[in-house]
Amino acid sequence: MIWDDKGYLLSKFKYNENSAIVDFYTSTHGKVSGIIFGATSKKIKGYLQVGNLFQLNYQNKHESKIGSFKVEIINAETPKFFSDRGKLHCLASSMSMIKLLTAENQNNHEIFNLINNFFILLKDDEWLKKYILWELELLKISGYDLNLEKIAKKQIINDNVTYYVESQSEKKIVPNFLVDMNSSTYDKKELVKGIKLVSSYLDKNILQPNNLSHPLQRVDFINILK
Q: What per-residue confidence (pLDDT) applies to 185?
């Protein structure tokens, strides 16, 4: 099998002295794993950063074995955020979420477009709020819609609107911006509550049932927000 496509680098791991095992999310082939031979060469290693967009040539002689990539850089997105620790961690978190929530070799052009949109939202003044909404959209496209607009209940306390969800065992406050898309918030504490709410859903509905751990990149991102 041989094909050409473009794709974002989701992860990379050293394979041997000179090579790396990588995951790309591609435009027309979905998430694909493979080996890049010579990944430590000066020609490649400088731009082989998670989040960068590449032109890919994929070859696989045997379906039962892992294939290989030849890559050329299209857009070096990641270096644009080297000076911003928060956004750099956010970038790593987003790519780890894509890797976690997508299946191998199953194309979904909505997800590829979502990655394109991610790099646009990082340039916005309200990037953190928009990233949390981005995660909700990723979960929805992946089949894990929180449906907060439908399940959240509304209460008014001292003329302030509050949303919450409850079960038999607990009641959780939902930050307004997760339910009311017209709500504007610059309160970092509310934003952190929002991303922790998404984390709770992720743990309960996706990770724990599959004996998976929270992506370390996302844990690191949340920790630097505190």
A: 65
